[in-house]
Design brief:
The complex is a heterodimer of chains A (250) and B (375).
Chain A (H helix, E strand, L loop, with lengths): L5 E14 L2 E11 L4 E5 L6 H8 L7 E8 L1 E2 L5 H7 L1 E4 L11 H8 L6 H6 L4 H13 L15 H14 L4 E5 L7 H14 L4 E5 L3 H7 L2 E6 L2 E6 L1 H6 L1 H8 L2
Parallel strand pairs in A: 3-8, 3-9, 6-7, 7-8
Antiparallel strand pairs in A: 1-2, 1-4, 4-5, 9-10
Helix pairs in contact in A: 3-6, 5-6, 7-8
Chain B lengths: L6 H22 L13 H24 L7 H20 L12 H5 L15 H25 L4 H20 L11 E2 L3 E2 L2 E2 L3 H27 L1 H11 L1 H6 L4 H27 L1 E2 L6 H14 L5 H20 L4 H15 L3 H14 L5 H10 L1
Antiparallel strand pairs in B: 1-4, 2-3
Helix pairs in contact in B: 1-7, 2-7, 2-10, 2-11, 2-12, 3-5, 3-10, 5-10, 7-8, 7-10, 8-10, 11-12, 11-13, 11-14, 12-14
The chains are: A alpha/beta (250), B mainly alpha (375).
The structure holds adenosine-5'-diphosphate (ADP) and magnesium ion.
Amino acid sequence: MSAPTTPTLLYLDNVTVTFDGFRALNALSLAIDHHEMRAIIGPNGAGKTTMMDVITGKAKPDDGQAVFDGSHDLTALDEATIAELGIGRKFQTPTVFEHHTVEDNILLALKADRRPFSALLSRRDKVERERIDALLERVRLNRHRHRLAAELSHGQKQWLEIGMLLAQEPKLLLVDEPAAGMTDQETADTADLLRDIAKTRAVVVVEHDMTFVRDLGVKVTCLHEGSVLAEGPLDVVSANERVIEVYLGR
Amino acid sequence: MSTIINRQAVVVLVLLALAAIVIPAMNLAAAPGSVFHLSDHLVPLFGKYLCFALLALSVDLVWGFCGILSLGHGAFFALGGYAMGMYLMRQVGSRGVYADPVLPDFMVFLNWKELPWFWEGFNHFPYALLMILAVPGALAFVFGWFAFRSRVTGVYLSIMTQAMTFALMLAFFRNDMGFGGNNGLTDFKDILGFSVQAKSTRIALFVLSVAALAAGYVLCRWVVSSKLGKVVVAIRDAESRTRFLGYHVEQYKLVVFTLSAMLAGVAGALYVPQVGIINPGEFAPANSIEAVIWVAVGGRGTLAGAILGALVVNAGKTWFTGAVPEYWLFALGGLFVLVTLFMPTGILGAADKVWKRLRSRPEDTRGELASQAAE
Ligand SMILES: Nc1ncnc2c1ncn2[C@@H]1O[C@H](COP(=O)(O)OP(=O)(O)O)[C@@H](O)[C@H]1O
Ligand SMILES: [Mg+2]
């Protein structure tokens, strides 16, 4: 069997993940292009988070292929190696390093040599400081840079995590429910930020908030019971009878 | 921004320097009978406390900063001790009871005809020094390589470390292992040509213990204030998040665990000439647990707290075992429960909180939080 390759950035083919016989993903196929932004919708338990687990190496599929950026077989790699290849992930519940300052959270995420001895000897240079400044500016946390991440509000933590993702300079960003728990203003700002990010890299956003998805204005994939139910522009997908039945029309 | 020598480090180093001057002076210069005189047996006793403080420091590095609760660090301490003990045994030479120029007494007693291969080289001090670091380091590396790669964490990892030290204890108890069995290694004569009993040697060993503790402390400060230290704390607080940032968590744990084991080995090596014996009892699982209690009492994740905890608890132990020996274990257990319930951040954490409350004025709380975070 020759190694699979993909012309698209990410290619999932026939991916199946089972938990005790239950198919969280059921022959899921999906392709994300370079610099594409995609919104993923679907009811709770549809398998959206599990799909991200497969892409980031947290879950290993029973069957199927996951290929990234040419010929990297994601199913054979561990989380850290996948992250180094250029896949960044934002979790459903914001996870930042609470005992570190905002600035150090960004520093840790910054693209750099990840080996322990390089970290031991690394010293913050001018380039790195400027990168950190720019990123803090972008996620509007400059004023809070010396505070512990634990002291931030929920919305600020979400943004800090997005800042950390950007610091990694990934080719593909996976963002799981970024608007959850945000105010309307924060939600709109987040949509703006993600659209801006998507100009230079591919972004996959999982979101329940339909206003948010509408704000993004990108191609939508609706998952249901572990496979793709419908795919296309939001208007088309939301007019789909099956989508209305299992998701929108609840 | 982090600096290696912060305010805490200055305090620790100044106090250690003072100890290195004052204690020898009180032993040598003050007239016997004066209140300032320190009797001879107290010098190695304090030296022993310092070795325990270095062991505590090594435990704090893995537990306080990386979240690896090792209940087997006593094994690394004991291995460092045995390496030193083997050097000291080889120095005895023909002055042993059986007067064999090469074989230590216990080997003659067991009717062994030649030195086992792993005793070769220990007559050279530099080789012994190397082994003091290499043997605990290698064990930690191999153990950690398997454990961290298979992602054993939490209680399971702690149990494995206990099993490791327990297995070593059983092995070292056996005569045919070649380490003196039950009795261990003892009856040392001299170290680098100086009699281990001599007052001056004891003073020198005490000062060396202070120096080793200070060096170990600065090394730990360097590690925890580097970017590697930040990664390690990140692993402690959110391991899987750290992986998704591209850090190979197992490599980081391995580095810290191995370094920590080598520190524990040095502590054991300095301990042995000061107490005059090393035996398999040093591998006892309870010893490793005690070391963890010192760190918890002093305040984990602070380095200085580990030193403080080791000194305070061991001073208490000396007093207790003199006055009411049968109650010591109850006192230790009680202390651990009390600290866990009422001082979860240990003595240092509690003191820090009181200090902050006394100092903080409402208008500058923000600035203080910031500078505290920046440290
Ligand atoms: N580790 C797991 N063990 C067992 N079942 C799981 C596990 N992870 C997810 N599932 C199940 O798989 C299904 C899909 O979950 P998930 O991917 O989290 O859905 P979504 O993110 O779309 O809400 C759910 O029914 C969930 O209960
Ligand atoms: Mg989910």
